[in-house]
Design goal:
177 residues; 4 strands; two-stranded antiparallel sheet; mainly alpha
Length: 177
């Protein structure tokens, strides 16, 4: 996607006429990466794990569970590894913001809305308990407060919520150029 901005294509870009030789390839790779990121949100909470491990071709044939093309190392144990946690990271919603601004495709807003709703449902602390947001221990388990980790990274306010806000704002609020 950023290949379109580096190539100084119009916003949204005319995909059949990206000026740089690799512009179209970069655009297609960016779209595929976003789809892969969104695939990692196919969890019990709708949030992505800190680390997702993708099956290789040989291992995939051995695995009985066919629900997804990846797994969370230690995600099924009573005490999951740090891989299974969600710490309110901004990278996916930043990519959705850029993709929406460049393409105007509403699918990216839909993805962003799903992520926002999952954060509100699983990470928001009620006001009577002090308010704010928390990380969660395991994205593949809906545990409520039991699964909370009393930690809200600074990038959640500075980036995650900022990009969600911009994703749903008019594009002239803060133009890409």
């Amino acid at each position: 996607m950023l290949g379109a901005t580096e190539a100084w294509a119009p916003v949204p870009p005319v995909l059949y006429n990206l000026p740089r030789a690799y512009g179209r390839r970069d655009w297609d790779n960016g779209k595929a990466l976003i789809e892969t990121c969104m695939e990692t949100h196919n969890t019990a909470t709708g949030l992505s794990p800190e680390i997702a491990v993708f099956y290789d071709t040989e291992r995939r044939a051995e695995v009985k569970e066919t629900r997804r093309e990846w797994f969370i190392k230690g995600g099924n144990s009573e005490h999951p590894l740090l891989d299974a946690r969600y710490i309110l990271r901004p990278e996916t919603v930043e990519s959705l913001f850029i993709a929406f601004r460049l393409s105007g495709d509403p699918i990216y807003r839909m993805y962003g809305w799903r992520i926002f709703q999952a954060i509100e449902k699983h990470c928001k602390v009620p006001e009577h308990q002090g308010g704010g947001y928390v990380s969660i221990r395991n994205v593949d388990r809906v545990e409520g407060e039991k699964g909370w980790v009393d930690n809200m990274e600074t990038f959640f306010l500075a980036e995650t919520l900022k990009y969600l806000y911009l994703l749903f704002s008019e594009s002239d609020l803060i133009p890409l150029r």
